[in-house]
């Protein structure tokens, strides 16, 4: 049993922390996705350039 | 922090995540996202879908950041106007300093990320848009001239150009016309709102046209801008982003919009009071649909083009 009842503010703080965690997680995914796309597309462009030469 | 401290009145106003999100003006952001997306998809050239997603996200975050900075600067007048009293700063949930920090951080983040994802021309354009909305409109024009909404409306009109620039790295006749469409649409849209929210701006000391020049002058301006807007909207139908669907949509919507503007122009204050601004409210509602359907029609032309149905 909990030793004290959670105040409504505790729920709000939890929601805020959870929201921030999700935003930061999304930022990591965004950077990773962008890196993969840039590296693969530039790699493909480089391969095509070499094939032409 | 002790448990005792959380019961003080100031603490019960502690912000939730939603309050911070509200700083970004989500409703305005939805318009920014939609128009930027249309600008990006209508642009000639190709862009990787993930990069396109990141670009639109950055434009949306940039728009949201300028909204947060606008709320930071305008907190004093937001507290006076009924429409804005429940915003996070006047309601005491978020402090001005927090809004400023979020606005600056997200501005830098969105511009840098857009530059890295697409090109630095688009990123510079986004930075200029944020600067224009915050400094030129919010800090300078809004409290100084009754033409505030005309010039300031440019900030809301830039997103499709930024979307276009993300793909092409530049500007064109088409992207400029998309800008002009929103630019010319903003004054009649806001002035119609001012006609039925008349005391709000006066109480806050914001020199809106209806406060400084009266309601008859505002009605004249609505009509003139609506006629100029129609010329731009229909003209865009003959460019590469137009087509039969767009042109038909533009003809119908502009006819309805002109009829609405003429109805407003022919009314006086007594008629407005008698029916509680029914005509002005209907015109305002139509203006929302007007912009959405014009950009929706451009999107339809783009979507149908691969099947030989869209465009000229």
UniProtKB/TrEMBL annotation, chain A:
Top-rank taxon: Bacteria
Keywords: Membrane, Transmembrane, Transmembrane helix
Transmembrane segments: 20-37
Name used for this protein in its record: Cytochrome C oxidase assembly protein
Organism of derivation: Cognatishimia coralii
Automatic annotation (TrEMBL), chain B:
EC number: 2.5.1.141
Membrane topology: Multi-pass membrane protein
Pfam families reported for this sequence: UbiA
Catalytic activity: heme b + (2E,6E)-farnesyl diphosphate + H2O = Fe(II)-heme o + diphosphate
Entry GO MF terms: protoheme IX farnesyltransferase activity
CDD domains: PT_UbiA_Cox10
Subcellular location: Cell membrane
Main location group: membrane
Membrane-spanning residues: 28-47, 53-73, 94-114, 120-141, 148-167, 179-201, 222-239, 245-265, 286-309
Keywords (A to Z) from UniProt: Cell membrane, Heme biosynthesis, Membrane, Transferase, Transmembrane, Transmembrane helix
Miscellaneous notes: Carbon 2 of the heme B porphyrin ring is defined according to the Fischer nomenclature.
Subunit structure, as described in the record: Interacts with CtaA.
Family stated for the protein in its record: Belongs to the UbiA prenyltransferase family. Protoheme IX farnesyltransferase subfamily.
Protein name (Swiss-Prot/TrEMBL): Protoheme IX farnesyltransferase
Lineage of source species: Bacteria, Pseudomonadati, Pseudomonadota, Alphaproteobacteria, Rhodobacterales
Protein encoded by which gene: cyoE
């Amino acid at each position: 049993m909990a030793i004290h009842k959670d105040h409504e503010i505790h729920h709000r703080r939890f929601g805020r922390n959870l929201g921030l965690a999700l935003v930061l997680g999304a930022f990591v995914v965004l950077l990773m996705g962008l890196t993969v796309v840039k590296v693969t597309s530039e790699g493909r462009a480089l391969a095509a350039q070499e094939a032409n030469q | 922090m002790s448990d005792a401290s959380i019961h003080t009145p100031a603490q019960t106003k502690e912000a939730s995540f939603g309050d911070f999100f509200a700083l970004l003006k989500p409703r305005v952001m939805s318009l920014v996202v939609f128009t930027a997306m249309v600008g990006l998809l209508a642009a000639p050239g190709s862009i990787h879908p993930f990069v396109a997603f990141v670009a639109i996200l950055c434009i949306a975050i940039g728009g949201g950041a300028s909204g947060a900075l606008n709320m930071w600067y305008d907190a004093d007048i937001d507290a006076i106007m009924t429409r804005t009293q429940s915003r996070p700063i006047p309601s005491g949930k978020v402090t001005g300093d927090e809004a400023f920090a979020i606005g600056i951080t997200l501005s830098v983040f969105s511009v840098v990320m857009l530059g890295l994802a697409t090109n630095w021309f688009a990123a510079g354009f986004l930075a200029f848009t944020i600067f224009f909305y915050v400094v030129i409109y919010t800090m300078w024009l809004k409290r100084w001239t009754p033409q505030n909404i005309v010039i300031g409306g440019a900030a809301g009109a830039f997103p499709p150009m930024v979307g276009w620039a993300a793909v092409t790295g530049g500007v064109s006749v088409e992207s400029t016309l998309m800008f002009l469409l929103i630019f010319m649409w903003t004054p009649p849209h806001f002035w119609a709102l001012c006609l039925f929210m008349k005391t709000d701006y006066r109480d806050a000391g914001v020199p809106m046209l209806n406060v400084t020049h009266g309601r008859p002058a505002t009605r004249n301006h609505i009509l003139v801008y609506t006629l100029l807007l129609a010329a731009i909207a229909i003209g865009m139908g003959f460019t590469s982003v137009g087509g039969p669907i767009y042109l038909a949509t533009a003809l119908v919507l502009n006819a309805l919009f002109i009829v609405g503007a003429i109805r407003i122009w022919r009314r006086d204050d007594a008629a407005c009071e008698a029916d509680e601004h029914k005509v002005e409210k209907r015109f305002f509602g139509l203006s929302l649909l007007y912009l959405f359907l014009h950009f929706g029609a451009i999107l339809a032309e783009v979507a149908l083009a691969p099947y030989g149905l869209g465009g000229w």
